[in-house]
Design a protein that fits this description.
Length: about 260
């Protein structure tokens, strides 16, 4: 192991408050598939990410199950998902600056990470599907947890101690937001409105429109992922409908009126 790698391991151990027996696991956990390009046989973090993902889901499921004994499975599932999804894990990587140690040669990754860091200012807890975090950020958190799991002789409690400290504050029932698409459907169902998403234009203009009772009440454009455009269009529609309902405006308003 080089002197640079040894220093890297020390910094990671300080952040995670965990001393590795096998330092090579840390290097493996931080190595993106692009680092050795075009060689495809080199060891990257993918195997550790696999086990880290499985262990983390199990631990967070146990945590919400024990913490909220009266909650139905549906709400427990939402709480578990919110604390292990790509955005939550990417936030962990940003808040503890783990992104600085990712070994990669991906051309756009640094730019994507910077854009994600800046976007967090608008969503201090979670965006509920409105942000597009770089997957590598979440991957490296899972791979480091996988490394702890392997290094600690499969100790679930050790992994949980590390993650709980890194991920604080965990998302709880009070901070758990609603996914914009689900919120839109609930709002329309409650008010007996028909909602429809127009997605045909996305392939050409990366735009998705939301129609409610024949009126366009929301629209969003996002070129990278249709899912993000859909979520943002739903959020725009929810905000518009809530404003209309608060002011008792009928849905017979024209499109211009809705967005004025």
């Amino acid at each position: 192991m080089t002197l640079e790698e040894m220093e890297l391991v020390k910094e990671i151990e300080a952040i995670m408050a965990y001393k590795f027996k096998d330092s090579k696991l840390v290097i493996e956990a931080l190595t993106h598939s692009s680092f050795y390009y075009p060689c495809k046989s080199a060891v990257t973090y993918e195997r550790l990410e696999f086990i880290g993902d499985a262990v983390l889901n199990c631990l967070v499921a146990r945590e919400v199950f024990v913490s909220y004994p009266d909650f139905a499975p549906g709400l427990l599932t939402r709480l578990r998902a919110a604390n292990v999804d790509t955005e939550k894990l990417a936030r962990v990587a940003v808040s503890h600056e783990l992104y600085r140690f990712i070994r990669h040669k991906a051309p756009q990754l640094d730019k994507q990470i910077q854009e994600f860091r800046e976007s967090l200012l608008d969503y201090p807890i979670h965006s509920n599907g409105l942000l597009d975090p770089p997957k590598a950020l979440a991957d490296v958190v899972e791979s480091l947890l996988g490394a702890v799991f392997v290094d600690s002789n499969s100790s679930l409690e050790t992994v949980w101690e590390v993650y709980r400290r890194l991920a604080e504050p965990l998302i709880n029932p009070k901070t758990l937001g609603k996914h914009p698409v689900s919120e839109l459907h609930e709002l329309c169902q409650k008010n007996r409105m028909e909602v429809r998403f127009l997605r045909e234009k996305w392939d050409e203009s990366t735009c998705i429109d939301v129609m409610v009772d024949g009126n366009m009440v929301g629209s969003a454009t996002y070129g990278n992922k249709k899912e993000i455009a859909l979520n943002r269009a739903a959020k725009a529609a929810v905000d518009c409908l809530k404003n209309m309902l608060a002011n008792e405006n009928p849905l017979s308003l024209t499109q211009t009126d809705l967005f004025s």
